[in-house]
Amino acid sequence: MSLAPTLDPAVGSGRSSSRAPREDRRAPVGRRARRSWLGPRTLKTIRFLSPVAVVVAWQLASSLGVLSERTLASPVQLADTAWALISSGELVGAIGVSARRAALGFALGASIAVVAGSIVGLTRLGDAVLDPIMQMLRMLPLFGLVPLFIIWFGIQEEPKIYLVALAVIVPLYLNLVAALRGVDQDLREVAYVLRLSRREAIRHLYAPAVLPGVLVGLRQSLGLAWITLIVAEQVNAGAGLGYLINNARDFYLTDVIVVGLLCYAALGLLTDALVRLAERRALQWRDGGETA
Amino acid sequence: MSEHRTAPPAVVASVRGVRRAFGDHVVLDGIDLDIRRGEFVALLGHSGCGKSTLLRILGGLDDGATGEVRTGSEPAVAFQDPRLFPWRRVLDNVALGLRGPDAEERARAVLAEVGLAGRERAWPRQLSGGQRQRVALARALVREPDLLLLDEPFSALDALTRISAQELVRDLVEAHRPAVLMVTHDVEEALLLADRVLLMADGGFAYDETVDLPHPRRRDHPGIVERRSRLLGLLGVGAQRADA
Predict the structure, then answer these.
(1) CB A292 to CB B126 under 8 A?
(2) Could you say which DSSP state residue A289 is in?
(3) Rounded to 5 degrees, what are φ and ψ at A218?
């Protein structure tokens, strides 16, 4: 995601310099890219304007009657509906219910992943006992479990929370185990030579060493948690964003459906941003400049 | 076990009949060695001759050896590369595993001693290679070990940094008086720093001599020059080529 904006200007300027040969003949070599009409700043503006254009076209299509409201509500309509849902408190309540499911499922799944991952990554016996089970779990088709979960846990909160938990476990577990196995043997020798206790070794060596990998797993887990919640909430939800969307479907309220989807997206972006923030704070030592 | 001999300084590390093989390849074939308090021993040899293996056995980092190894208290080790924890600041790296209320105080003092006062809050990544190796030395010395194991500690440094690092080690050893076992492949370095030079070949010691010259030593001191030629000859390198 973060790679695209840094790559694109380079691609653009390379292309543009070959397109504007006449102007370049007089220009000094270094300014070639800047002189052409597709400079980095123009590209940045285009990058911003392109999605705006889509929204404008969408609104136009709706206003001109090309796009019927039953297919997709107009952006203006969406804003109206969003405001109405917010002022009635309906949306906040639904987000609260969904966020609670996500949080509980995530907490449960993350705890299992961290405990299992630590045992497997740090002990050979644990590896032999637990890893095959976790690998089996990994291969299960997550959404194929929905019918079983309904039989086992009913149609209330439990199946939704457990499904989210299951989705969270796998990426976090895999990344944690890989990170623990990858802890530098040289640094382990240092921990031994310094006679660090097990606690000290975990605090000063293992935990910081696996943190980058764990954060990657965390981001994958959170992304999957939201997707899983959306699917789980399609199943007989009596509250929450999924309920809002399902209800709206029955009445062809495409505006409510889209607002619900946007809420899911916003929640996903929010949790991702939180992890990235934690990442920046926790991994300061990597950014601390080169040799001074 | 049986070191009731005449020399007064106590033995801090004792190796008896130590054997180590990797597959069919025997690198240590019944090694005997005593290192006494305050003694600076340099261990020379071609790469793969087993000198680093012996050091790792003394440091408790090699499980595959047979024979008897005794070290007094916990030996400290400085490796070829600094091996700092990159996610801990310089001061915390030195204080790692130190106990007691004055741990931080002691870490600060040793950092100052290696010339890094003021860099306590730096990340290891922000230091130069030489500075990082000095942090590693501080981390080893802050424990006041009676045996300091140095595994080619200067070989990753550039020539100029190496000279100042060698001088620093000599000063630190003079101040703290641990026994030192330094593995190196640099004959001159061994002769400039050590009180006793061992040369390892074919699983045993081919040369064991006390270097009884005052410090600081000069490279062109006749005692150094003469020993260097002899050692280079034993290593199979022509005496006219100064560096092994």
Answers:
(1) yes
(2) -
(3) -65, -40
Per-residue pLDDT of chain B (244 residues; tens, 9 = 90+): 444 555 568 889 999 999 999 988 899 999 999 999 889 999 998 888 889 999 999 999 998 899 999 987 789 999 999 999 999 999 999 999 898 889 999 999 999 988 999 999 999 999 998 999 999 999 999 988 999 999 998 888 888 888 888 988 998 888 888 999 999 989 999 999 999 999 998 888 988 889 888 888 888 888 888 899 889 988 887 545 444 4
Burial class for B238, CB neighbours closer than 10 Å (0-12, 13-18, 19+) = exposed
Please state, in angstroms and rounded to a whole number, the distance separating the CA atoms of residues A286 and A251.
53
CA distance B139 to chain A (A): 9
Paired tokens of A58? 């969408």
The DSSP annotation for B30-45 comes to: EEEEEEETT-EEEEE-
The burial class, CB within 10 Å (0-12 / 13-18 / 19+), for B13 is buried
Measured from the Cβ of residue A134, the count of other Cβ atoms closer than 10 Å reads 18
- How far apart are alpha carbons A20 and A208 in whole angstroms? 51
Task: Indicate the DSSP class of residue A70.
Answer: T
pLDDT at A222 exceeding the cut of 90: yes
SS3 B100: coil
Question: Per residue in A25-55, pLDDT tens?
Answer: 454 555 554 557 788 888 899 999 999 999 9
E-assigned strand segments in chain B: 11-22, 25-36, 40-44, 66-71, 76-78, 147-151, 179-183, 196-201, 204-210
Q: Which CATH class is domain A83-287?
A: mainly alpha
Q: Are B67 and B15 spatial neighbours (Cβ–Cβ below 8 Å)?
A: yes
For residue B127, what are its two tokens?
């230091």
For chain A, domain boundaries: 3-65, 83-287
Q: Which two tokens stand for residue A232?
A: 């789980």
- Determine the residue of chain B that is closest to A207 in CA distance: B87
- The larger pLDDT score, comparing residue A107 to residue A240, is at A107
Sequence spans of domains, chain B: 88-144
Which residue of B59, B60, B96 is in closest CB contact with A196?
B96
Given a cut of 70, is residue A118 above it in pLDDT? yes
Q: Which residues of B touch A211 (CB under 8 A)?
A: 87
Q: Check if the beta carbon of residue B54 is closer than 8 Å to that of residue B205.
A: no
A208·B87 Cβ contact <8 A: yes
- CB atoms B126 and A205 under 8 Å: no
**Could you give the dihedral angle defined by the CA atoms of residues A95, A101, A103 and A105, in that order, rounded to the nearest 10 degrees?**
-160
